């Protein structure tokens, strides 16, 4: 499905479209929501911070919870779902 979505977006946008234009196209089409964008950012940030070393998963979950004003349990849920379905 990702390949098909990429094909659709390429047809709708001009060659050399910016990242911002691609994201806007995905947002307009409903493929990208604020929630899905936030979840992606949380996952990327979690693993970036974990890779720096010296911190526990819980410590990082607490930081991201405060940063994005969501519960620690929700951050943990996002992380666990990602690691469960990571290709």
Please provide a written account of the structure.
Helix 3 crosses helix 5 (72-85) and helix 4 (57-68) packs across helix 5 (72-85). Helix content is 75%, strand content 0%. It is elongated. The mean pLDDT is 90. The protein has 2 domains: 1-32, no CATH class; 34-85. 9% of the residues are buried. It is mainly α and 87 residues long. It is built from 5 helices and no strands.
Number of domains: 2
Number of strands: 0
Low-confidence stretches: none
What's the pLDDT, averaged over the residues? 90
Produce the secondary structure layout.
Elements: H1 2-12, H2 19-28, H3 34-51, H4 57-68, H5 72-85
Labels describing this entry:
single chain, 0% strand, mainly alpha, 87 residues, 75% helix, 2 domains, 5 helices, elongated
Question: What's the short story on this structure?
Answer:
By secondary structure, the protein is mainly α. Helix content is 75%, strand content 0%.
